[in-house]
Amino acid sequence: MNEVLQGLLEGARLLVTLDADLVEISLRSLQVSLTALLIASVIAFPLGTLLALQRFRFRRTVIAVLNALMGLPPVVVGLIVYLLLSRSGPFGVLGLLFTPTAMIIAQVIIITPLIASITHQAMRELWAEYHDLLISLNTTKRQRMWTLIRDGRRALLTAALAGFGRAIGEVGAIMIVGGNIDHATRVLTTAIALETGKGDFALALGLGFVLILLAILVNIAIHALSRTETSGRW
């Protein structure tokens, strides 16, 4: 109990004093996770919506694979990305291993199936509601997709928040491809793992407290933005 209290106090002290290392690590965590979220959303939103609209051969197989990839172990993703970006790998010439870019790539692979799957479920229900209207208006496929994405943006927000929550808390994959290098690729989760391994539980708990606070603040900010944008319609 004393360690927990000490950890919370340490986290509060780091926040109040705006500790330089903490600010650097926190900003890098947000940079990596938000960038991965943006890229994954650009891929997953249209993909999930298309799967809800379009009927094609092997569609159910694609959906099943997508759902299965939601449970893909992050360390396996990290290993695959590591092999691809290593010197002996096909993309080793790019020199991306042990950089924030490699961490972003790993996180995109991890969260894209999650966001796409949630998007598909939400868009499928919305399409059932809008189907007759959009068909009667003789809309194109692109217009139907845009209508569903626009009117289902709250559901898409939920999918994005789920993806962000998984990205910001990821440690296994980014530890492998990022290397947890100080002042280069160290983020909150890898810093917590490092401090725990060193036996500095107070600092680890403090960093965990900061990680939770960051996740809450980002969620509040996105929800506030959503309410502002949709107040006229909802």
Question: Any overview of this molecule?
Answer:
The structure is a single chain. Helix content is 79%, strand content 0%. It contains ten helices and no strands. It has helices spanning 2-16, 20-53, 59-69, 74-85, 100-136, 141-151, 153-168, 172-178, 188-198, 201-230. The N and C termini lie far apart (45 Å). The mean pLDDT is 86.
**Terminal-residue CA separation:** 45 Å
In total, the number of strands is: 0
Order of helices and strands: HHHHHHHHHH
Shape: globular
The largest sheet is: none
Could you tell me the radius of gyration in angstroms?
Answer: 20 Å
| Uncertain residue segments | none
Rounded mean pLDDT is: 86
Portion in strands: under 5%
Supply the number of helical segments: 10
Helix/strand structural class: mainly alpha
**What fraction, in percent, of the residue positions are helical?**
over 70%
Give the SSE layout.
Elements: H1 2-16, H2 20-53, H3 59-69, H4 74-85, H5 100-136, H6 141-151, H7 153-168, H8 172-178, H9 188-198, H10 201-230
What is the gist of this entry?
The chain has helices spanning 2-16, 20-53, 59-69, 74-85, 100-136, 141-151, 153-168, 172-178, 188-198, 201-230.
Key structural traits:
about 230 residues; mainly alpha; 10 helices; globular
